[in-house]
Write a structure and sequence with these properties.
Blueprint (H helix, E strand, L loop, with lengths): L12 H9 L1 H11 L4 H31 L1
Helix pairs in contact: 1-2, 1-3, 2-3
């Protein structure tokens, strides 16, 4: 019988990078991961979009707080 090679999966660190780096890092992660795990590549793009929305909301809150004081 022939040996079956295990398919190498990308690490979960890609999610952390996308959450910290936003959509640009998510696009790079998508390019790096799309051939190995297409489902994870799509999730990386969504993580990048969500993180950029969160950054914008937090930025608006931080800008508004000094005005309220």
């Amino acid at each position: 019988m022939g040996q079956v090679e295990a398919k190498r999966k990308p690490t979960l660190w890609w999610y952390a990078l996308c959450l910290l780096g936003g959509p640009i890092v998510a696009a790079l992660g998508y390019i790096a991961v799309k051939d190995e795990d297409p489902e994870m590549a799509d999730e990386l793009v969504m993580a990048g979009v969500v993180s950029s929305i969160i950054y914008m909301v937090v930025g608006l809150i931080i800008l508004r707080v000094p005005m309220l004081l």
